[in-house]
Specification:
This protein is of the alpha/beta class. The protein has two domains: 102 residues, NAD(P)-binding Rossmann-like Domain (Rossmann fold); 165 residues, NAD(P)-binding Rossmann-like Domain (Rossmann fold, 3-Layer(aba) Sandwich), CATH 3.40.50.720. Helices cover 37% and strands 17% of the residues. A seven-stranded parallel β-sheet has the order 8-7-6-9-10-11-12, sandwiched between helices. Strands 2-1-3-4-5 form a five-stranded parallel β-sheet. Strand 9, helix 12 and strand 10 form a beta-alpha-beta unit. Helix 6 crosses helix 9. The radius of gyration is 23 Å and the shape is elongated. The mean pLDDT is 90.
Length: 319
């Protein structure tokens, strides 16, 4: 009987026990916890991972191996039949190349819905209240108790930084671009804040799945949304789906939320829109060239930034 080994790329802090238990099924467990694409390909070609039948990877492991494109797939053992991908989006895996090699790819679109939607709402509320100004001011103020106390005593608001009034979510129009599992979860949460929900997909959802959201055209979504949340997958047709022409079509003072994929937005155009005031604030968990972030976003106080942690909960990762 042929040997069937399994390969783990990157780490699994949450399921080490379960990974070890795979040894009851697999003939051998290989691990590649860290390294480089060149080193990984070299080890594959040298037979270090021979007889691998299935491998597990996540979006976090992409910084180790890079994209699973044809070059990397050609280096993997010919015995490989399954790529188990921990993530909703698999834009970093060349599916046609996998199909050509007879490799099946699985992903986890449902498991990440709630955690990602929670972060989208977190970013939305932070953006609506333009929270970065005040957050940074408080942290900076901790360095000097005297400065904080003086500000409190004089009550000139300096301890709040470059403070300005924010906005309530109630009665705002939330536009969801991509009303799949995550987009629907965002919509359900936003309704609790009294927001009006509209969405655009390639196809209108069945009435029973809309849950009161209104289907609109892409152009109308851009033109009428107070807050725009991106919840669609990245592919050739959606890359830079939000760029200068789309920003120009939006309301003045629109708020942009992105928890999907960074390259959906032309970041240079977003920076310009933030500077001009076309975009009032933005909440971003993903970036066009992450972990690199556009300097204009790092300099801007009217953005809320997170380092791609939308799915980073124990409950989500275990599930």
């Amino acid at each position: 009987m042929a040997q069937r080994a399994a390969l783990l790329i990157g780490g699994v802090t949450h399921t080490n026990k379960e990974w070890k238990e795979c040894g009851q099924i697999a003939s051998k467990l290989y691990e590649y916890p860290d390294g480089s694409r060149e080193d990984f390909i070299s080890k594959c070609r040298n037979g270090d991972f021979k007889d691998v039948f299935a491998l597990y990877r996540s979006n976090d492991s992409n910084k180790i191996t890079g994209n699973f494109n044809e070059e990397l797939l050609d280096a993997l053992p010919k015995t490989l039949k399954f790529i188990c991908h921990n993530g909703a989006g698999y834009d970093n895996i060349d599916i046609p190349a996998c199909t050509k090699r007879g490799i099946l790819v699985s992903s986890t679109p449902i498991a990440v819905n709630d955690a990602t939607a929670d972060v989208a709402i977190f970013l939305m509320l932070g953006a609506l209240r333009n929270i970065t100004h005040s957050f940074q001011a408080v942290r900076a103020g901790e360095k000097s108790r005297l400065v904080v106390m003086r500000a409190l005593l004089t009550w000139k608001g300096k301890w709040r930084g470059n403070f300005s009034l924010g906005h309530d979510p109630k009665n705002k129009v939330l536009g969801i671009l991509g009303m799949g599992g995550i987009g629907s979860a965002v919509a359900r949460r936003a309704k609790a804040f009294g927001m009006k929900i509209q969405y655009h997909n390639r196809h209108k959802l069945p009435a029973g799945e809309e849950e009161g959201a209104e289907y609109v055209s892409f152009d109308e979504l851009l033109r009428t949304s107070d807050v725009l949340s991106l919840n669609l997958s990245l592919n050739a047709s959606t890359r830079h789906i939000i760029a200068k022409p789309q920003f120009d079509a939006m309301k003045d003072g629109v708020i942009i939320i992105n928890t999907a994929r960074g390259p959906l937005i032309d970041e240079a155009a977003l920076v310009d829109a933030l500077k001009s005031g076309k975009v009032w604030t933005a909440g971003l968990d993903v970036f066009e060239e992450e972990p690199k972030i556009h300097p204009g976003l790092l300099e801007a106080e009217n953005v809320v930034l997170l380092p791609h942690v939308g799915t980073a909960t124990f409950e989500t990762q275990v599930s």
